Amino acid sequence: MDVLSDVLRGLRLEGALFLHAEFGEPWCVQAPAGAQLALMLPVQATRLAICHLVLEGSCRVQWGEGQGLPMRPGDVVVLPRGEPHCLASGAGAGAVSLQHLVAPRLPDLTRIRYGGPGDRTRLVCGWLALERGHGHPLLDALPSAFLTSLAQRPCGGWLTQSVLYALDESAQGRPGADLVGARVAEALFVEALRGHLDGHPDHPPGWTMGSQDPQIGRCLSLLHGQPARAWDLASLAHEVGVSRSVLAARFQQLVGMAPMHYLARWRLVLAARLLGEPRSTVARVCEAVGYASESAFHRAFKREYGLAPGHWRRRAQRSGAATPGVGVDAGAASSDD
To answer: Is the domain 7-199 a CATH 2.60.120.810 member?
Structure first.
């Protein structure tokens, strides 16, 4: 089981490139929170991750309380929870709002030139709509922002050329250009994430750290590969080949929670995804994620997402948020709540 791919499927990424910008020094652009940007875009999501790729020149990205990173050609920064942030050439420029620059032309991919007569920086910006709800194990484990150098990645040249190709497709107005841009934005996010995981094996406890450990990685693969199995600590420890006490302690240390707590949360993330399937039923999703009792499933799901499973299912299917091929047996849809 490829745990990273499984977790990313749980996010139900939907992305797009929305800005191709050339800035002249001095310049400074203030970007809003992802939730605010989402109001300007044709997405059925309340949360957006934001990414920026430097094609030429250099700049600095800043967020939070004085946190920041320098960016050079080939660097891509991702703000997975859509933190408000600022991109700038340096001191000496007043900040302009990103909405002011691009709002009149969204949701189309916008090409802009802005700033002074100095050194030029060319950026491509993208957004990714994430699954509604909260408490996703991947998002919880990521920092507010992380940076990956595509120049250091095996696919860096290919991905950069793919971005340039998507920009050209959009500029020429070719049929299918929006879909090309969407897939490139999603690939950019995934590769930046993989670069972050590869480059930070010692980051604080969380799902991503556990996946790098041979024993805990094996445990996570089992939980993701067979989420409906009636797991307990003893059966997991037997499969992994360690004692219950060692498994419990190491899982807690690396992932930040007990194995059964992680499984309970993952089952609900999976359930939210499955409920968006075109012909799913609450009863079948309940069984697919390992709940023996529908009433227990209803209580757990509503506690996590604030909606009953049937309500979530109807809303997800109305918004067209289904992800094909997840594996719930297709059958007649029910009207369960």
So the answer is: no
